[in-house]
Write a structure and sequence with these properties.
- With 172 residues, the chain is of the alpha+beta class.
- The protein folds into 2 domains: 75 residues, Roll (Ubiquitin-like (UB roll)), CATH 3.10.20; 80 residues, DNA polymerase, domain 1.
- 31% of the residues lie in helices and 18% in strands.
- The protein is built from 5 helices and 7 strands, in the order ββαβββααααββ.
- Strands 2-1-5-3-4 form a 5-stranded mixed sheet, sandwiched between helices.
- The longest helix has 17 residues.
- The radius of gyration is 17 Å and the shape is globular.
- The N and C termini lie far apart (61 Å).
- 33% of the residues are buried.
- The structure holds FE2/S2 (inorganic) cluster (FES) (2 copies).
- The site of one FE2/S2 (inorganic) cluster has 11 residues, from loops.
Protein backbone atom coordinates (compact mmCIF):
# COMPACT_ATOMS: atom_id res chain seq x y z
CA UNK A 1 0.00 0.00 0.00
CA UNK A 2 1.50 3.33 -0.97
CA UNK A 3 1.57 6.27 1.40
CA UNK A 4 -1.18 7.96 -0.64
CA UNK A 5 -3.62 5.03 -0.70
CA UNK A 6 -6.84 5.75 1.11
CA UNK A 7 -8.61 3.45 3.51
CA UNK A 8 -12.17 3.65 4.80
CA UNK A 9 -12.75 4.41 8.47
CA UNK A 10 -16.26 3.73 9.69
CA UNK A 11 -17.44 6.00 12.47
CA UNK A 12 -20.55 7.28 14.17
CA UNK A 13 -19.98 10.97 13.60
CA UNK A 14 -22.28 13.35 15.47
CA UNK A 15 -24.94 10.65 15.53
CA UNK A 16 -24.70 9.63 11.87
CA UNK A 17 -22.89 6.64 10.40
CA UNK A 18 -20.13 7.92 8.15
CA UNK A 19 -17.21 6.49 6.24
CA UNK A 20 -14.14 8.69 6.26
CA UNK A 21 -11.68 8.12 3.43
CA UNK A 22 -8.31 8.63 5.02
CA UNK A 23 -4.63 8.21 4.33
CA UNK A 24 -2.64 6.07 6.75
CA UNK A 25 -0.88 9.06 8.25
CA UNK A 26 -3.92 11.37 8.47
CA UNK A 27 -4.77 12.74 11.86
CA UNK A 28 -8.36 12.63 13.03
CA UNK A 29 -8.29 16.43 12.69
CA UNK A 30 -7.31 16.08 9.00
CA UNK A 31 -10.13 13.60 8.42
CA UNK A 32 -12.79 15.66 10.17
CA UNK A 33 -11.88 18.87 8.40
CA UNK A 34 -11.78 17.05 5.07
CA UNK A 35 -15.27 15.74 5.87
CA UNK A 36 -16.44 19.35 6.20
CA UNK A 37 -16.43 19.60 9.99
CA UNK A 38 -14.16 22.58 10.57
CA UNK A 39 -15.13 23.42 14.15
CA UNK A 40 -12.05 21.64 15.47
CA UNK A 41 -9.14 23.95 14.72
CA UNK A 42 -5.56 23.29 13.67
CA UNK A 43 -3.15 25.22 15.87
CA UNK A 44 -0.17 23.80 17.74
CA UNK A 45 -0.51 20.21 16.43
CA UNK A 46 1.51 19.09 19.45
CA UNK A 47 -1.33 18.41 21.93
CA UNK A 48 -0.61 21.60 23.83
CA UNK A 49 -3.49 23.98 23.09
CA UNK A 50 -6.79 22.05 22.85
CA UNK A 51 -8.10 23.94 19.80
CA UNK A 52 -8.65 20.62 18.02
CA UNK A 53 -10.60 18.93 20.84
CA UNK A 54 -13.26 16.36 19.95
CA UNK A 55 -14.92 13.55 21.87
CA UNK A 56 -13.96 10.00 20.98
CA UNK A 57 -16.30 7.49 22.62
CA UNK A 58 -17.22 10.30 25.01
CA UNK A 59 -13.63 11.03 26.00
CA UNK A 60 -11.96 14.32 25.16
CA UNK A 61 -9.01 13.90 22.78
CA UNK A 62 -6.77 16.21 20.81
CA UNK A 63 -7.68 15.26 17.27
CA UNK A 64 -4.36 16.65 15.96
CA UNK A 65 -2.55 13.90 17.84
CA UNK A 66 -4.97 11.04 17.16
CA UNK A 67 -4.65 9.00 13.99
CA UNK A 68 -7.84 8.88 11.95
CA UNK A 69 -7.37 5.11 11.75
CA UNK A 70 -7.75 4.92 15.54
CA UNK A 71 -11.36 6.09 15.16
CA UNK A 72 -12.46 2.95 13.29
CA UNK A 73 -15.76 1.70 14.74
CA UNK A 74 -15.91 4.49 17.30
CA UNK A 75 -18.20 7.38 18.17
CA UNK A 76 -17.02 10.93 17.50
CA UNK A 77 -18.66 14.13 18.64
CA UNK A 78 -17.48 17.51 17.49
CA UNK A 79 -18.51 21.03 18.43
CA UNK A 80 -20.98 20.90 15.54
CA UNK A 81 -23.06 18.41 17.56
CA UNK A 82 -23.28 20.64 20.62
CA UNK A 83 -25.36 23.46 19.24
CA UNK A 84 -26.50 25.01 16.00
CA UNK A 85 -26.58 28.65 14.99
CA UNK A 86 -30.34 28.73 15.51
CA UNK A 87 -30.26 26.63 18.68
CA UNK A 88 -27.09 27.29 20.65
CA UNK A 89 -26.15 25.18 23.64
CA UNK A 90 -26.56 27.06 26.97
CA UNK A 91 -22.79 27.07 27.42
CA UNK A 92 -22.42 28.77 24.05
CA UNK A 93 -25.13 31.24 25.09
CA UNK A 94 -23.17 31.98 28.27
CA UNK A 95 -20.02 32.71 26.24
CA UNK A 96 -22.01 35.13 24.10
CA UNK A 97 -23.66 36.78 27.11
CA UNK A 98 -20.24 37.38 28.68
CA UNK A 99 -18.63 38.50 25.40
CA UNK A 100 -16.10 35.77 26.08
CA UNK A 101 -14.97 35.61 22.46
CA UNK A 102 -12.50 37.71 20.55
CA UNK A 103 -11.18 36.18 17.32
CA UNK A 104 -13.09 32.97 18.13
CA UNK A 105 -10.42 30.59 16.91
CA UNK A 106 -9.98 28.75 20.21
CA UNK A 107 -13.62 28.91 21.28
CA UNK A 108 -14.96 25.64 19.80
CA UNK A 109 -12.23 23.68 21.57
CA UNK A 110 -12.68 25.66 24.75
CA UNK A 111 -16.43 25.15 24.85
CA UNK A 112 -16.24 21.45 24.02
CA UNK A 113 -13.57 20.98 26.69
CA UNK A 114 -15.54 22.84 29.36
CA UNK A 115 -18.70 20.97 28.40
CA UNK A 116 -16.92 17.62 28.70
CA UNK A 117 -15.46 18.61 32.08
CA UNK A 118 -18.82 19.68 33.51
CA UNK A 119 -20.59 16.60 32.15
CA UNK A 120 -18.03 14.46 33.94
CA UNK A 121 -17.66 16.69 37.01
CA UNK A 122 -20.56 19.15 37.27
CA UNK A 123 -19.15 20.29 40.63
CA UNK A 124 -15.66 20.95 39.26
CA UNK A 125 -13.84 23.56 41.34
CA UNK A 126 -12.62 26.84 39.94
CA UNK A 127 -9.07 25.46 40.02
CA UNK A 128 -10.14 22.44 37.97
CA UNK A 129 -11.91 24.68 35.47
CA UNK A 130 -8.82 26.87 35.18
CA UNK A 131 -6.58 23.83 34.75
CA UNK A 132 -8.75 22.39 31.99
CA UNK A 133 -9.09 25.61 29.99
CA UNK A 134 -7.64 25.39 26.51
CA UNK A 135 -5.17 28.01 25.34
CA UNK A 136 -6.41 31.33 24.04
CA UNK A 137 -4.05 33.86 22.53
CA UNK A 138 -6.33 36.89 22.48
CA UNK A 139 -9.35 36.97 24.82
CA UNK A 140 -7.67 36.11 28.08
CA UNK A 141 -9.46 33.91 30.54
CA UNK A 142 -11.54 36.18 32.78
CA UNK A 143 -14.63 36.27 30.58
CA UNK A 144 -14.53 32.62 29.52
CA UNK A 145 -14.26 31.60 33.18
CA UNK A 146 -17.19 33.86 34.10
CA UNK A 147 -19.23 32.24 31.32
CA UNK A 148 -18.33 28.74 32.44
CA UNK A 149 -19.18 29.53 36.07
CA UNK A 150 -22.55 30.97 35.07
CA UNK A 151 -23.32 27.85 33.04
CA UNK A 152 -22.13 25.67 35.93
CA UNK A 153 -24.44 27.48 38.38
CA UNK A 154 -27.41 26.90 36.08
CA UNK A 155 -26.42 23.27 35.59
CA UNK A 156 -26.12 22.65 39.30
CA UNK A 157 -29.33 24.51 40.09
CA UNK A 158 -31.14 22.29 37.58
CA UNK A 159 -29.69 19.27 39.39
CA UNK A 160 -30.52 20.58 42.85
CA UNK A 161 -27.02 21.62 43.98
CA UNK A 162 -25.36 25.02 44.22
CA UNK A 163 -21.87 26.28 43.48
CA UNK A 164 -19.96 28.51 45.87
CA UNK A 165 -18.05 31.51 44.48
CA UNK A 166 -14.84 29.48 44.25
CA UNK A 167 -16.63 26.96 42.08
CA UNK A 168 -16.99 24.19 44.67
CA UNK A 169 -20.47 22.81 45.27
CA UNK A 170 -22.70 22.87 48.29
CA UNK A 171 -25.73 20.79 49.08
CA UNK A 172 -29.02 22.69 48.60
S1 LIG B 1 -3.96 21.78 17.59
FE1 LIG B 1 -4.31 19.96 18.71
S2 LIG B 1 -3.75 20.44 20.76
FE2 LIG B 1 -3.26 22.24 19.62
S1 LIG C 1 -10.56 34.13 21.19
FE1 LIG C 1 -8.87 34.36 19.84
S2 LIG C 1 -7.53 32.71 20.34
FE2 LIG C 1 -9.10 32.63 21.81
Amino acid sequence: MSRDDRVPVHVLLNGAERTLDVQMHDSLLDALREAGLVGAKRACETSDCGACAVLLDGKLVNSCSTLALQAEGRRIETIEALGRREALHPLQEAFLAHAAVQCGFCIPGMILTMHALLERRPDASLAEIRDALTLCRCTGYTKPIAAVLEYQRALLAARGATASPDGSTEAP
